[in-house]
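Contributing new records

If you add data, match the layout below exactly. Sequence lines come first and carry their own label; structure lines follow with theirs. Keep one chain per record. Anything else will be rejected by the validation script.
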Amino acid sequence: MRYFLVVGETSGDLHAARLMDQLRKLDDRAEFAYMGGKQMSERGGTCIARAEEVAFMGIVDVATHLPLIRKTAKKVQQALLDFRPDAIICVDYAGFCFRYILPFAKTHLPASKVVYYIPPKVWAWKKHRIRKLLTLTDLVLCILPFEVAFFEKHKLTHAHYVGNPTYETIAGYSHTAAVPEGEYVALLCGSRRSEVQMNLPLMLQVTADLGVRAVIAAAPDIEPGLIKEIVGDHTHVQIVQGDTYGVVSGAHAALVTSGTATLETALLGTPQVVCYAVRGGHLANFVYTHFFTAPYISLVNLIAGHEVVPELFGGLFRKETVRQHLNQLMQDPAARTTMLRGYDEVRQKLRTDTSASENAATRILRLLAAGPMGTTAED
């Protein structure tokens, strides 16, 4: 079979590479072409475009580089026509895939099956994309279990939960680097410059007020100079870059900017307070409550289906509130135990017998084996 994968971010490159491994195990005649990164290139096949060349984020960044993005899209589209894949597999990277891949495949490659592995978070925003997933894909492979019920509610019945790569990574995690000694609070202040600038100052103030040691788990792409500038004269702080799991696993508690980091912290078993600075204060909370349908902002609570970790964002992200919640986790064994039990629920909901990539590959092969009139709603 011929497989064409479209990837745009580093994490997607890793997930797609693992999927290629599994497809090759199940299909010894597998041929690959792709827009991807280093991990995929190591698996062989034909690289049509490098993912990092179009990995732009934010409206301004995307608008500035729009000519390059369009040029790359045309190159990928021509490669799709030349390669004539049995399956077109989009991995995350919603902006590019929804604009340049899904409608193109529907119009120009009607015989190719279209698979979306790690679909966009339409349950949080841009719900209009559900319609495109419904009409332009043959199979949607989810890594968050609650997504399947959400899609079914909106008449999309070809979505399946295949497992969670973060769960799998942490389940097999074995820390070897030196963990900071003594009791400390881990600070995960975001992976973008703006997030660090908005979240870290208050996190530092809170830990200083409580008289506790803080260790900043700096994201790999954040320049160390930025963090050092914000830390300034604070003497209770240590900065560790490139070992987030080690810092979190050794911490007594953590302040975590919302995102995948909240799930990673939960799976590592460290009690946390979710913190996210949003411009607009309480107005942001009002807008979220009245215009967003997702009940929580953290993956931990979304997966559990109830509040496991406190979510302090917008007007709730205040020094007094953060200090109160963090102090409770530091001092109250019952509060810690309750949260850790909630973490166990999350692990149970994420657990699968086989890996996400293996399950995804099996689903894709089953789809292709069904033939032109096949459907993914067989089970």
